[in-house]
Amino acid sequence: MNQTTHLQERALQERTLQERALQDRPLQERIGMRAPLLLAGITLVGFGLLYSLAGTALGRVLFPDAATGSVITRGDRIVGSALVAQPFGDARYFQPRPSAASYDPMAAAGSNQARSNPDLRKRIDEAVVAVAAREGIAAADVPAELVTQSGGGLDPHITPAGAKVQVARVAKARGLDQATVEKLVADATEAPQLGVLGQPRINVLRLNLALDALQH
């Protein structure tokens, strides 16, 4: 009898412990989920929001011009960006490189045509003839950059050679001495970055704005 009672009491204790464990499981599960949820929240807020805000604020402090798109203004009017080429249809202005995107920043792209593509060769041949006629030079003297498109289609720069062949036309259209225009080109020529990266280049928009400022 005593043995039976003892077994019953032991079974009751085990059942009580099992019931208590079942009751405590939701609490343990909630405690176990707290760490990953906290980590997810810190990651989302810290890296998704605070990091972005800090990076934007730091960029505005260290590089205020580049952080706002390198926008160029004249008075209260935005005339363009130093990072994006734009067309100039007037003979009084230097011309940028051709654009496969029609100078549309929302459609930046190259032509994706291989050098062996006959359409590409035809377009370049036609462009060489057109540039040579526009600048009054031989086809062999046309710089390659003035008839080829950059990879992004919005390259804002040309080389000094690309500007040199346009000096005579611009000077004649504006009634200026070639020497005056050549000096503007020289002043607008940017050295390679850090002295070794890239090659000397000229921002076409800035050069054209300097021309306009010269005659106002």
Automatic annotation (TrEMBL):
Q: Topology in the membrane?
A: Single-pass membrane protein
Keyword Disulfide bond appears in the UniProt entry: no
Listed A to Z, the keywords are: ATP-binding, Cell membrane, Ion transport, Membrane, Nucleotide-binding, Potassium, Potassium transport, Transmembrane, Transmembrane helix, Transport
Location within or outside the cell? Cell membrane
| Major location category of this protein | membrane
Does the keyword section mention Transmembrane helix?
yes
**InterPro entries linked to this entry:** KdpC
Which spans are transmembrane here? 35-54
Q: Which Pfam families match?
A: KdpC
Q: Which domain of life is it from?
A: Bacteria
Provide the function of this protein.
Answer: Part of the high-affinity ATP-driven potassium transport (or Kdp) system, which catalyzes the hydrolysis of ATP coupled with the electrogenic transport of potassium into the cytoplasm. This subunit acts as a catalytic chaperone that increases the ATP-binding affinity of the ATP-hydrolyzing subunit KdpB by the formation of a transient KdpB/KdpC/ATP ternary complex.
Q: Which NCBIfam families match?
A: kdpC, PRK00315.1
Give the family this protein belongs to, as stated in its UniProt record. Belongs to the KdpC family.
PANTHER family, alphabetized:
POTASSIUM-TRANSPORTING ATPASE C CHAIN, POTASSIUM-TRANSPORTING ATPASE KDPC SUBUNIT
Subunit comment: The system is composed of three essential subunits: KdpA, KdpB and KdpC.
Please give the HAMAP family that the UniProt record associates with this protein.
KdpC (MF_00276)
Q: What is this protein called?
A: Potassium-transporting ATPase KdpC subunit
